[in-house]
Design a protein that fits this description.
- With 244 residues, this protein is an alpha/beta fold.
- It is 37% helix and 27% strand.
- The chain has five helices and eleven strands; from the N terminus they run E-E-E-E-H-E-E-E-E-H-E-E-E-H-H-H.
- The strands form three sheets. The protein has a four-stranded mixed beta sheet, covered by helices on one side. It has a four-stranded mixed beta sheet with strand order 5-6-8-7, covered by helices on one side. Strands 9-11-10 form a three-stranded mixed beta sheet.
- The chain is globular, with a radius of gyration of 19 Å.
- The two termini are 31 Å apart.
- The mean pLDDT is 90.
Length: 244
């Protein structure tokens, strides 16, 4: 892994270049910086060209919405004890207690999420712990729903082969497809409308066949979701509201 720093819009971003067993190159922008992932089979010149291309993509993306990538911005929502909130059509309620211990824990019973937090946390860390714990529990609760959805969409449109499906608290993208054939979706997607969730599932299913965003990739997506551009627009306009 190579590391360097890049200043964009007066903000410093750590660039991490990873060489992995993968079939394509990609970049993502996360809270720890810009991650560029390259296949091992590329030669030195090809790696150099890919890094330049993906750095340019990252710079252009950050410049379009600099506030979205403000690494100092706290993007965890705040929950109150006894609060009701919805994830899609499903209601949940929080039950928050504190203990004099180092770690935090949580469990879900029905639609109630019980959180036991360390009383030693400051306010920012408290919000972070609550957000991560709720995201993990809701992900477990909704995983079968997502698996069934992907299975049905795949049967209806493609019949591709894939391995595992994961729901993760990923803030840098809505989904990804690994070179091993695993599909990863962000838990943030659970706040989106049903048709938008369908689009992201289709998007990642097509990546099983087409690793890059080629013309053929978008033709396959369009065949399953003719108005896919409307779904992309919704994600761009409402993405910041989809947060645990």
């Amino acid at each position: 892994m190579q590391n360097e720093k890049l200043v964009i819009e007066d903000k410093e971003f750590q660039i991490n270049v990873h060489t992995e067993n993968r079939s394509n190159s990609r970049a993502s922008i996360g809270k720890t910086g810009i991650h560029i992932r390259l296949p091992r089979f590329l030669n030195r010149e090809e790696k150099f060209r890919e890094i330049l291309k993906l750095k340019k993509w990252a710079i252009d993306t950050i410049k379009k919405e600099p506030s979205k990538f403000d690494q100092k911005q706290n993007r965890f929502r705040e929950y109150e004890n006894g609060e009701f909130f919805n994830v899609g059509k499903d209601p949940y309620q929080t039950s928050i207690t504190f203990s004099d211990k180092r770690g935090s824990s949580a469990r879900i019973e029905g639609n109630v999420i019980f959180l036991n937090l360390s009383s030693n946390l400051n306010e920012d860390k408290k919000k972070e712990h609550i957000s991560i714990l709720i995201s993990r529990l809701v992900a477990k609760d909704k995983l079968s729903y997502i698996k069934n959805k992907i299975d049905e969409l795949n049967r209806r449109h493609f019949n591709f082969s894939y391995k595992k499906i994961f729901l993760k608290q990923n803030k840098s993208n809505w989904g990804s497809c690994s070179c091993k054939g695993n599909i990863n979706l962000s838990t943030r997607l659970l706040f989106a409308p049903e048709d938008v969730i369908d689009y992201v599932c289709i998007h990642e299913l097509v990546h099983l066949k087409e690793p890059n965003h080629s013309e053929n990739f978008w033709n396959l997506v369009k065949g399953a979701v003719p108005d896919y551009k409307e779904k992309i627009k919704w994600l761009k306009e409402n993405g910041e509201k989809c947060v645990f």
